[in-house]
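Re: the pair you flagged

First of the two:
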Amino acid sequence: MNMKDYSNGVHPTWCPGCGDFSVLRSIQLAAAHLEIPREKMAVVSGIGCSGRISGYMNTYGFHSVHGRSLPVAQSVKLSNKDLTVVAAGGDGDAYAIGMSHTLHAIRRNVNITYLVMNNQVYGLTKGHTSPVSQVGLKTKSAPEGAQDTPVHPGLLALGAGASFYAQGFSAEQEELVELIKAGIDHKGFSLINIFSPCITYNKTNTYDWFRKHLVTCEQAGHDDPENLTSALSVLQETQGLMRGIIFRKTGEPTFEENHHLANNPPMIEVPLEPTAEKFQRWTARFRLDG
């Protein structure tokens, strides 16, 4: 398998230089390295510039509505446990309208990977502030600069009990490929926050800006991704501007294991019409007459 096997030949309509090009290529390269059969992979996306990514993959794909890629992705995984499921969204999808879905997906620990293309601005609506926009960032919706305290994705994820949290940079593609591979290989919910600059509407958080401010886990003195205390500490010290696997906890039971789904056949193989006996047994517990 190679990267081209996962491309459907549709040319992306992103602005030239958009970081999402690199994210798309990184997903394709990660899938090729892991030799995931195309018919065994599904990419689910939301709305916005990032939402287009599912339409460029030669796998199963689903373009959901704003902030709702995670409910769809979880349903896909629980319906067919044999699929490798990757959800994708932007910072608006993940940390604004879809915030509750992100938090509950983290705590459920369904075995899927969530890639968040974080550009600190709403590209779809032509440059509005997002939940992660820095204080002072001037946009069309905040000409005097953003005033609200930005959401901190790393602290949010770890506080919600994430079993895998990493951050990547679209300009560091080799590293990003390895992070996506690690996320897919992780048993449980994997959240990868990817700094993916918007070259059209965010003139502050540019590629050069990130190159200047981002540090690796090693540079931040964080060499043990299983140390939650260290992970929380370095995220605060670096204000979240770091790359690499920040936290990983193995052995956590997944949603599928907690609900005894791991050893059952996929839902797609279960007959849709239950027998009368099964129906009576399922509904008996709800009858008030005992």
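Second of the two:
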Amino acid sequence: MGLRGGRRTRNRYVQHVIPRRAAADLGVGTGVGIFSGAFGVGGGITLVPFLVLVRKIPQKQAQATSLVMVAMAAAAGAVRYAVNGDVAWWPGLFIVIGGFAGAWLGAHLVQRSPGWLLQSLFGIMVIIAGIRMLGLAGVPEAPVSHLEDPTVGLIAGYVAAGLGMGLLSALFGIGGGILLVPILVALFDYTQHLAAGTSLAVMVPIALVGAIRLTKPGLTKWADGARYGVGAMVGALIGASLALLLSGGVLRGLFGVLMLLVGAQMGWKAWKSRPRAE
């Protein structure tokens, strides 16, 4: 009876619990994808807390697994922006070059650095960038003038931006768009739509490098990430389509508020996890 009872319990779990969880994960992925496509970010900033707090997955494993979903969502969102002409391709190439280096370095550091310190620095940086984005919300957007005129200075700037994006991607399991979008808007005078589309396009290979790099230590769970990613791809198409209907000023304001909330959340988590003196 015990053996048969155990089999019946396992069968009920397979027939009922697993399908419900899979459907819930697809729904979560769709919501994260809408967020990703609308703002040009990876969505890991929302998925990682869900994996840790709800699914009870260890922090580093959640971050690595999130990168799989980030790559899938970014690919779908980038296609939508590209159709609208809102992807800067040659700058994206140099951002990716810097991003590869940053993702490799970040994947190395994530296993050795104190998380509370990294979160503190990240939170402060995001809050500053959010304030800057809010200040730009009312500034009229103009076409970017330097896209057809690459210079050594611009190329170096794009590589540096990619380096920072790749670092964040691997260190925190996010796409890095939360940093790249404000950089492109504030320092390179991109429109909000062009910054979001370019961010998503370069995010795909950068996130994949981070996920691959973290596979060897057993942190990246590809099947789990892909399950969320399927829903995220649908959501990213929806989010990008909605964003293209809104003005750049409105999106900048919303993005600025988002960054303040994210920065505050990261700072609070860092404060709670800091080492305490005995």
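The chain is about 80% helix and 0% strand.

-B.
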